[in-house]
Amino acid sequence: MKALRKKIRELFEKGEVDAVLGYREDPASGEVKAAVFKKDETLDDMVFDGRCIQNLVNYLPTLVARYRKVGVVLKGCDGRSLVTQLVEHRINKSQIIALGVGCEGVEIDGKEAEKCYDCATHMSPIADHEFGEKGEKREPAFAGVEEIEKMSPVERWKFFADYFAKCERCYACRQICPSCYCEICIADQQEPKWIEPSAKLSANTMWHLIRAYHLAGRCADCGECERVCPQDIPLRLLNNALEEAVHEMFGVRPGTVPEEVPPLVVLNKDDPDRILEGKNE
Amino acid sequence: MQIDKEPKILAILCKWCSYAGADLAGTSRFAYPANVRIIQVPCSGRVDPVMIFKAFVEGYDGVMVSGCHPGDCHYGTGNYHARRRMAVARRLLQFVGVHPERMHFTWISAAEGKKFAEVCGQFTDKLKMLSGSEKTLARKELAT
Ligand code: SF4
Ligand code: SF4
Ligand code: SF4
Ligand code: FES
After folding, report:
1. What single DSSP character describes residue A261?
2. Distance (Å, rounded) from C-alpha B81 to C-alpha B3?
3. What is the bridge-based pairing of β-strands B36-41 and B103-107?
4. What is the largest CA-CA distance in chain B?
5. How many angstroms is it from A174 CA to the middle of ligand 1?
6. Which of A90, A221, A275, B30 is an S-S bond match for B25, by CB 3.0 to 4.6 Å?
7. Cβ contacts of A208 within 8 Å, gap of 6 or more
8. Neighbours of A272 (CB within 10 A)
């Protein structure tokens, strides 16, 4: 933390950043929230620990529109998220100073967040400056996905239909996701209207399938969608199932390799036809 | 229940090969089951998985997508994009409980009228074997 603060002060002094996006502990309430730090402001209340849950990358597009150069504190998952934004040219790297911090996991409601068990990179894969332990790259286990895969088709549908039926279509999952940034989301599109706006099972099913599909190969597993869902719908299951599928078929783990193009925007003439049958070998 | 026995199938076919193949099946008088409803798209690269999702939610028993063989796409590469998309869409649908045999993704050329009729026949037979109670995703709020 000391080293991080020192570096940020130095960046401000040298004029290398105009603003830094990080986490601040509110001295009165003790709550930790995303915050923008500017040149002559104190960094004393800047923190980095298990309470720094938010994915700050979601705020970057607004900040780069306002400031010439922005520093951003990144956990491993947020770093993967940034990689996706960069390859999709949503944000230009020349406007960003990436401050990667070795992350030991965050806590949600007093428990280690589930996404942290599956974290592929505890350090941001893209970092101009690194702080703390880098940790090892590892393969996520996705135990939840495995559980579903043991079920029969009918059992699976029973499981998901119960959740889909509860969805209120508040779109919090979409708003919080850095990768969900379409100018007109398919869910708001009127002509053709693929998804009816009312919150009923059929329309909700459409929403959940489309959201998951649009994030295939692009979701960094930051877990934000699941965290903000007011109905506790296990959205990570869908994201992770597709992350596994894409990894198996195309060998890509979204966000873990800087400059790797998302697998669904490129083609490969050598993809085997067997993937059409859902087989991998 | 007789209703369960006659599956409704949606076939999304590219204009240049598979639709022409279906046409050829017609003109050559190869019979194929009336269960198949065809939608023509310019290229398999036009097939957005949302179309497949919608078909299942609206109650289709099976969805078939077919384009030109790899290397033969009229627009060069549409079917390579389609292959990736269909593969991922399949995994997602299977994950939430659509039976794997309810989806059939393949390549049929303009000369393969016979293959088209056979594929439709086999797919229809397979769907007849699956019981109606295993039909997932179909809009339940209408039934209740
Ligand atoms: S946040 Fe939850 S309830 Fe809201 S739209 Fe997303 S899945 Fe549905
Ligand atoms: S889909 Fe969810 S977990 Fe994936 S990047 Fe978006 S918010 Fe994060
Ligand atoms: S759900 Fe799809 S269309 Fe909507 S914002 Fe996300 S990626 Fe875009
Ligand atoms: S035109 Fe047939 S697949 Fe592209």
Report:
1. P
2. 36
3. unpaired
4. 48
5. 8
6. B30
7. A160, A164, A167, A233, A235, A238, B96
8. 14
Residue A100, token pair as written in the block: 């990667």
Q: Is B64 at the interface with chain A, CB within 8 A?
A: no
What whole-number distance in Å separates Cα of residue B29 and Cα of residue A148? Answer: 45
Q: Which residue has the tokens 């292959």?
A: B83
Q: Cβ of A279: how many Cβ atoms within 10 Å?
A: 12
CATH number of B9-137: 3.40.50
> What mean pLDDT comes out for the span A32-36?
97
- Give the tokens for residue A274: 């067997």
DSSP reduced 3-state for A43: coil
pLDDT digits (tens, 9 = 90+) for A104-125: 999 998 999 999 999 999 999 9
Domain assignments of chain B as residue spans, ordered by start: 9-137
pTM to 2 decimals? Answer: 0.95
* C-alpha of B119 from chain center: 10
Amino acid present at B34: A
Write the residue in A149, A194, A267 that is nearest to B50 by C-beta.
A194
Distance CA B2, CA A53 (A): 55
Nearest CA to ligand 3 atom 1: A211
Do β-strands B9-14 and A70-74 pair in parallel, antiparallel, or remain unpaired? unpaired
Bridge-partner residues for A8, per DSSP? none
Distance CA B81, CA A212 (A): 18
Minimum CA–CA partner of B51 in chain A: A194
Q: What is the pLDDT of residue A1?
A: 86
Q: Is the distance from the beta carbon of residue B7 to the nearest atom of ligand 4 less than 6 Å?
A: no
AA letter at A174: R
